[in-house]
Design brief:
The termini are far apart. It is built from six helices and five strands, in the order βαβαβαβαβαα.
């Protein structure tokens, strides 16, 4: 099960890319909103109890200062995947730098700016290490992607004499 944490409800549209991918792969998740700055006690409690509640990976979307993924990682040994969000004046570069530069000893995996779907896929790959059914669903999803790209190549391909 994946815990998806948003720093604000303004992040919902982007982070729904992650939940849509989790749903497509039939992976259970819970989504909640928690601010590292406005509700730090709640953030600590979420992270401290996540494993006991059955979560195996945490996805955390955050923009601007983007402290949420790091704060959650500080309170758990579960893998945390940070999604830098582009809602700031710096279009997410600030969030990317904040998440990717965690200090030694408190790792946070980081995907590209607004790449919530990739964060979900990374979470599924982690879960698939001990779930053969999920591993097969991931392989099938990859094959669907290959087929879609090949179909577009056939559709748009041109040949010059």
């Amino acid at each position: 099960m994946v815990l998806v944490v948003l720093g604000s409800d303004s992040d919902l549209a982007t982070m729904e890319q992650a939940t849509a991918r989790l749903e497509k792969l039939d992976v259970a998740y819970e989504l909640t909103i928690c601010s590292a700055h406005r509700t730090p006690d709640r953030a600590a409690e979420l992270a401290r109890t996540a494993a006991q509640r059955g979560f195996r990976v945490i996805l955390a979307g955050a923009g601007a200062a983007a402290h949420l993924p790091g704060v959650l990682a500080a309170y758990t040994t579960l893998p945390v995947i940070g999604v830098p969000l582009s809602g700031s004046q710096l279009q997410g570069v600030d969030a990317l730098y904040a998440i990717v530069q965690m200090p030694s000893g408190v790792p946070v995996a980081t995907v590209g700016i607004d790449a919530a779907a990739n964060a979900a896929l990374l979470a599924c790959e982690i879960l698939a290490l001990s779930d053969d059914d999920l591993k097969q669903r991931l392989k099938a999803a990859r094959q669907e992607m290959v087929a879609a790209v090949e179909a577009k190549a056939r559709q748009y391909g041109r040949r010059f004499p």
